[in-house]
Amino acid sequence: xxxxxxxxxxxxxxxxxxxxxxxxxxxxxxxxxxxxxxxxxxxxxxxxxxxxxxxxxxxxxxxxxxxxxxxxxxxxxxxxxxxxxxxxxxxxxxxxxxxxxxxxxxxxxxxxxxxxxxxxxxxxxxxxxxxxxxxxxxxxxxxxxxxxxxxxxxxxxxxxxxxxxxxxxxxxxxxxxxxxxxxxxxxxxxxxxxxxxxxxxxxxxxxxxxxxxxxxxxxxxxxxxxxxxxxxxxxxxxxxxxxxxxxxxxxxxxxxxxxxxxxxxxxxxxxxxxxxxxxxxxxxxxxxxxxxxxxxxxxxxxxxxxxxxxxxxxxxxxxxxxxxxxxxxxxxxxxxxxxxxxxxxxxxxxxxxxxxxxxxxxxxxxxxxxxxxxxxxxxxxxxxxxxxxxxxxxxxxxxxxxxxxxxxxxxxxxxxxxxxxxxxxxxxxxxxxx
Length: 434
Ligand code: URA
Description:
Blueprint (H helix, E strand, L loop, with lengths): L2 H9 L6 H12 L5 H14 L3 H12 L15 E5 L7 H11 L4 E5 L9 H5 L11 H11 L1 E5 L6 H12 L6 H14 L4 E8 L8 H17 L3 E8 L7 E2 L1 H12 L5 H17 L6 H13 L2 H12 L18 E6 L4 E6 L1 H11 L15 E4 L6 E2 L4 E7 L5 H11 E4 L9 E5 L1
Parallel strand pairs: 1-4, 2-3, 4-5
Antiparallel strand pairs: 5-13, 6-9, 7-11, 8-10, 8-12, 9-11
Helix pairs in contact: 1-3, 2-4, 2-8, 4-9, 4-10, 5-11, 5-12, 5-14, 9-10, 12-13, 15-16
Bound molecules: uracil (URA).
Function: Catalyzes phosphorolysis of the pyrimidine nucleosides uridine, thymidine and 2'-deoxyuridine with the formation of the corresponding pyrimidine base and ribose-1-phosphate.
GO molecular function: 1,4-alpha-oligoglucan phosphorylase activity; thymidine phosphorylase activity
InterPro entries: Glycosyl_Trfase_fam3, Glycosyl_Trfase_fam3_N_dom, Glycosyl_Trfase_fam3_N_dom_sf, Nuc_phospho_transferase, PYNP-like_C_sf, PYNP_C, Pyrmidine_PPas_bac/euk, Pyrmidine_PPase_CS
């Protein structure tokens, strides 16, 4: 078999076989095919697309290009949750202890953030002492003992995907549904969960900007999961404005804790209830969706989820006192209000612009090498549907370096659209794919 022939076949819009896909994935992960040939193949895939079968073969080959974690020593059905990434998406930090408090094991391997969306690991690392580095055996022990552990994906998971994602990033081949679906699912499958709940974000702050593409991506991922014998559910959820109010690492941790204290923003609470309920149903600890929602609500009102968060933080070396004293988290030196220049209704808050405004402050990474400032970010004071008077505070910028203020403020002001007419709030959950 020759890589040249595989490129030519895909260029001419023919379907690749399982063997051909395995061949190039294996060879590429062992550095036996140069980047320029894989770039050409990726572009051919991008232009001619992949069938459902090809996508499944690609996922499986990438999953097998690295370690495949065996979580069978953990009692119960392990359900993972994955979000395709959104601005202010701190869901995992609230959801993991919520689901664990309902007795479903949460064994989660997460990633870091790149660009305008932050990663769960970065957010968790704003908790002093918290470590995301765990050996697999410790990870398994933690879940058996406490029902919860979150660690970083090791470099050995889905080796081919790591190389291919970096290549896609610089060859304009990221936004292809098969390539995204295979890339996300190979890591989820290699991380060992039995069942998977996918939160596919849709809207201007998401990877997928249109509902149609978001449904297609959810369907592609659900098909892969099902094909690989994992019960998989995909939810399409809104990312036309940031989730909740806080955008930035320690600020988002605070908002997640507030959610567990029963004081979370309505959109984040609804998302936790919905995703959490699906997770509990898949883990077979809830009878149906309504029972799942009841259980999640009870975990909040009883304080069990908050206690579980403390146990989780302590077990991973973090200071659990942050739960009761937010001043123990990284704090920005300045908090500056951004005021509205006119009166009217907030009709839109462009999530991507808010994400970029936070990234400028140091809350997100422009390149992989960038150091984050875990204390900085933005807290939205007004959300879509709210009425504002001229000079009302739209948002607060938390920052340490005044030189970054102007460009962040400009992005933030551009993100807010104020109109005379009140617009309908967008839905949070657009649909479920099974
Ligand atoms: N996230 C991934 O892990 N892979 C993609 O291709 C896109 C988003």
